[in-house]
Amino acid sequence: MTLDLVLIRPEFFLLFGFLVLLWYGTGGLVRPVAEIITVADSNYNKQYSCLGSSLTTTHETEVANESPKISYANERPGGEATSAARFASRPAAFGSLRRPTAGPNHAASALCLWAILWCLLCTVLAFYGPLQSVFLGGSFQKDYYSMQLCGILFFTAAFVLRVSLGWQKTAAIRHTEYVYLAMLALMGQYLFIQTTDLMSMYLCLELQSFSLVVLCGLNYKSAYSIEASMKYFLLSAFRSCLLLLGIGFLYWQTGETTISHIESLVFRTSTEPNLLLLLGIWFVSMGLLWKLAAAPLHFWVPDVYTGAWSSVSLWITVLPKISVLGFWTHNWQNLWNRSFGNTLAFFRILSMIIGALAPLAQTTLKRLLAYSSIGHMGLLLMPLCGSASNSVGALWTHMFIYILINLGTWGLIMAPMTRPNQPSLKAAGPQFIWDLKGLNQSSATAAFRWRVFMTSLAGLPPVYGFLGKAGILWRSLNNGLLITVAVALVYTLLGSVYYLKVMKVCYVDNPTSWGTYGKFSSTTAYIIAICVAFMLIGLWHGNYFFLLTHLLSLKV
Amino acid sequence: MSSSFALIATGALMSVFLMMRSKNPVHSVFYLVLLFLHCSGLLVLLGLEYFVLLQLLVYVGALAILFLFVVMLLDIPSTEILRHQRGTYPVAGVLGLCLILSALLAFTQPLVESPFQTSPIPTTSTFTGQNSDFVSSSRHYSFWNNYRTATSTVANLGIRLYGVHADLLIIRSLLLLVAMVGAVGLTLKRPVSVPNQDVFRQHYVDFQKSLVQIPQNKI
After folding, report:
1. Is this complex scored with an ipTM above 0.85?
2. Which residues of A touch B175 (CB under 8 A)?
3. What are the transmembrane regions (chain A) (predicted)?
């Protein structure tokens, strides 16, 4: 019991922190405040101006643009001459009273800042948690592998939140629910990495997908957003039906829900596994692959990416994949390999084919990135074929580099953009590929960044993206997956076409009019710059990264 | 046939009768709830605690309340219901015949292995231990709930749900929280033109400065 209490500190911290955020954000601290009653009175004015003078010294600058909206109904006719002078000073005094004396004016981003701090604290907790054990009725397990992945998950989440922070006002995100739901999704993903039991797996999966459904639909004034939310919701409902059916089959056949027990019960006996059991494993795996957006189960991806806010799309691109891949490599790999083994080749080859061909026809940047993420999922499924621990290392190397690339690319999408034909309208970011026309002339730095990230996504040599792809191909060659490697090479070739198309639009096209980037939020710009730096020097200084992922793969 | 069974069965029959005969549909639904309660009482007598819980949660908690809401929302006048009830007597007659037939068959037992009665578990050596030859030769029957030696199902369920897997219960509660926050968030209209309630502005109001005393003679 005591051990349990020590072990669940991070979970407790998460839950507690979440409740505090909720309480804070919904106004739990607010006491009813009496309104200021304005009486135009000489006595009162004197009192008021002296109050004002003490305050205006500190907050003179904020006040000027926002005058109070309180009408002075009962003005006195007498004393006109003096009150004119007082009136002049009154708005300032009023403003300083009505304005908050501290704190930002954008509740969502203020909460988001707290959430980032909280994610960083959780990172430290996960990395340096001393005890590693099964806890709480055996549904969750903390060990080196899962805790490292959890730390990386939290760290990534902090950056994902941070990169969109300055952009939230531009995109008109003023929902405080945004932060709660993101944090709840994060909690689901965090617990999902540690889960060892089918029941808890289902619950964590539902927790994160429900939160993401609501996050997709929060911007309900846009029909695209509603479409995204509906698609995600309905398809994830079907997915969870099948998943539950699979779990039911597994429980029916074995009477167990703990994955390691199922493994030892079924596959260490000499008899052939039952058909229902295989069906159960198949359904549960389909649920996981749906979450990963592998190819025949990818139909939700483009629409969800298009409809949701860019920050939510980034969240969906990166974080669930860390958690599902972590779960798969940690717990599910053996069961899948013993029962179906090479069937994964179908998924990865189909993913790569779709990732190579479908983006050629896209005009929207987000859809392009969505299909490219499907292609990358094909690559990421390649190391899952064998049970060799080295290939898991290659998987995580590529995944971490992919996270960096995505942070930078979506950071570039999350910057205000002004189109040539509608100069008054500031779009929340570049939406179509041709928005980037002539970017080299309007902002050479941004164009350079697009170039770096597109080259990285294509996985071509001078940048860091090459390393992950090369590692995966190398491991697959070692495992003898010749056909898959051939498909991956063709995929790289075809994929380069549409990544090069973006670069061509940036550099070569000579447009008559062009969209221009607005002011980048400073932290977004910093994060993009850091990602670019990693991309540029990573290929020559990637040793530490390799060692880290190798250590991870040894601890699977 | 204990006295409690007689009591509960009579109550169930009475509530069925009242449910059928009451003019007001809302009363009817309430009698339906009463019927479900009696049924769960019968299940308690059989020793099926888990099914009692299911009965109460699913039928009383969800279905009957759903009926109640629908009935209240639709607000059907009772004359209309009576008009639609005319064709139901043949159907009710067929069902009643079936009921009478099955009750007769259950009492008279035309076959040795009657499908209308729960077959008792044949006692084998695994259940009784010693004297197995004697017991099995005499074909001694016993019902399964006599063999329950462990703690009751409900106790086991409670230990599992609130003790061993309490964490899953907490995660489930978070899931419900997501549903609640989501339902509010997806339906809340946030008009731009009206002043918004800025939580942080309210947080940072210094109440000592926002309260201004009005002199007594000016009120």
Report:
1. no
2. 203, 206-207, 210
3. 12-30, 107-129, 144-165, 177-193, 199-220, 232-254, 274-292, 304-328, 340-361, 368-389, 395-415, 481-500, 520-540
